[in-house]
Structure formats: structure tokens, C-alpha cells
Specification:
10 strands; four-stranded parallel sheet; 258 residues; binds zinc ion; 9 helices; alpha/beta; TIM Barrel; single chain; 47% helix
Length: 258
């Protein structure tokens, strides 16, 4: 099954956002803590209860300002705290998947960065276990070659730590300078995963910004998702995420019935 929905509530607030997702016949929504974890746990429970009542699957996006591989100890500690705060809210929301960008290589080698990210993830997973939160850390495929988060790094991290993955197909497209082979990519991924999609502008340094999703840009992915019978929650991150999620849902429905 492919579930489709928007990143965030489009400024409506999360309760109204969930209602709109349900009204539009969409399936999921990502609650955004991208500029800070400002929601309290009680509010998260209220949003979670509404989503459950409406049958909407929630996920959570942790703050952008995270670097688990920073040279500065304080920054790593602050990053871990932001992730743990996000996990606590996600648990209250009933959101399993906690999305985040794990970090930057800066002056380190890829191997050193990998080891630091893995260590931090294992430590946060210990906290999740102790608190009995039903959440999974899902580091995201990032849009810039300077950022940790290639497909091979993240699939290895899944195996080594038991974390999940957020497959941002648009980021990968930008990271690979406009080249993406969905059939080849999906063979490397599990049958069930969390994902992002949108149009994207990119340059030599990778991702510039998420833009409106063109149908023709989504169709090749949609075909592969249906063909492979994958179990995916697909969040649209364009500047008009509700409208574009509805378009993607329509494309998928059409492929399924043809
Ligand atoms: Zn994304």
C-alpha cells in the first residue's frame, strides 16, 4: 500500500491539518518540528487521537538543526536532545517514524562521520527503549553531497543499528545531478519504508529548493511503487503539499486500476 499526504499542515495547525487530510481523502501527514520542537506532549496526544479517529498515519520531522557528527561536543549533545524531544512528541502523536538529517562531513572522512552518526543513533535508541516509546529513528537521504546521508550510508546504518530510513527521492535526484534509476534503487531498499517526494531545483552542490511537483516527474516512481507492491508512506514536500499529494494519489489510483 502507498499512503500519500502532505508535509505539515500548510499553516493551518496540526489539528486542522489532520482534518483537511481526511477531508481530501489523503492518508498521512508529517508533523513538522523543522524549526524547533515547540509542541507540548498534551497537544501531541490530542493531535494523535484525532489522527487515529480519522485513520490518518502521522510521522514527525525533527529540527533541521541537527549534526550528530559535529566537531563540537555541545552541538552533538544539543542535536541528540532535539531528536529525543522529537521522539517524545512522536510517541504521543502515535507517529512511528521520526525523520531527520543526520549531519555533515565537514572535515571528517565519510567513515569517521558514519561512526559518529551510528554511535549517536545507538545512544538515542537506548533512550527510546528505556522510555518505551513506539518510534523509529528514520534518517533521511539528503540532497547535498556535503551532507551525510547517501543511499549506501543509510542502508548500511539500517543494518548496523536497526534504524529505519526516509527515502527522499527528490533529494537523491538532486544529489545525483538529475539521474535516478527507480528500479535499481528500490531493489536496495526494504519492502516497507517512509519517503518524501516533490519537484526539486538543484545545482552543482546538490539541492537548492523543493518546488511544485509535476505529474510527469512523479509517474516513473509511481509505476515502480505499484509494480513492486511496496508498503510506503509518501509525504509531499512541495510548496503546495496538499494539492500535490492529491495529484500523486490520483496518479497512483489510476495506475492501480489500469
Ligand atoms: Zn525530505
Amino acid at each position: 500500500m502507498v499512503r500519500v499526504g502532505p508535509a505539515g499542515s500548510g499553516g493551518l495547525g496540526n489539528l486542522e491539518g489532520v482534518r483537511k487530510v481526511a477531508r481530501m481523502g489523503l492518508d498521512c501527514m508529517e508533523v513538522e518540528f523543522t524549526y524547533g520542537v515547540r509542541m507540548n506532549v498534551d497537544d501531541a496526544r490530542t493531535v494523535g487521537a484525532l489522527a487515529q479517529e480519522k485513520g490518518i498515519v502521522l510521522s514527525a520531522h525533527a529540527p533541521y538543526y541537527i549534526n550528530l557528527a559535529s566537531d563540537e561536543k555541545d552541538k552533538v549533545l544539543a542535536s541528540k536532545k532535539r531528536l529525543i524531544d522529537s521522539c517524545e512528541r512522536a510517541h504521543a502523536l502515535g507517529a512511528r517514524c521520526v525523520v531527520f538529517h543526520a549531519g555533515f562531513y565537514q572535515k571528517r572522512t565519510k567513515g569517521q562521520t558514519y561512526d559518529l552518526v551510528k554511535k549517536a543513533i545507538l545512544e538515542i535508541q537506548d533512550v527510546i527503549k528505556i522510555r518505551k516509546w513506539k518510534v523509529q529513528l528514520c534518517p533521511e537521504i539528503t540532497g547535498k553531497p556535503s551532507q551525510f546521508g547517501s543511499v549506501s550510508e543509510l542502508t548500511r546504518l539500517m543494518q548496523d543499528s536497526g534504524c529505519g530510513i526516509t527515502v527522499d527521492f527528490a533529494h537523491l535526484y538532486a544529489r545525483q545531478q538529475g539521474k535516478i534509476d527507480y528500479a535499481k534503487l528500490l531493489k536496495k531498499l526494504p519492502k516497507k519504508f517512509h519517503a518524501h517526494f516533490s519537484g526539486i531545483e538543484y545545482g552543482e552542490k546538490g539541492e537548492k529548493k523543493h518546488v511544485v511537483t509535476k505529474k510527469i516527474f512523479f509517474e516513473p516512481l509511481a509505476k515502480q511503487l505499484i509494480k513492486r507492491k511496496l508498503d510506503v508512506t509518501l509525504i509531499n514536500e512541495s510548496p503546495q503539499p496538499f494539492k500535490d499529494a492529491a495529484m500523486m494519489k490520483k496518479v497512483l489510483d489510476k495506475l492501480r486500476s489500469s
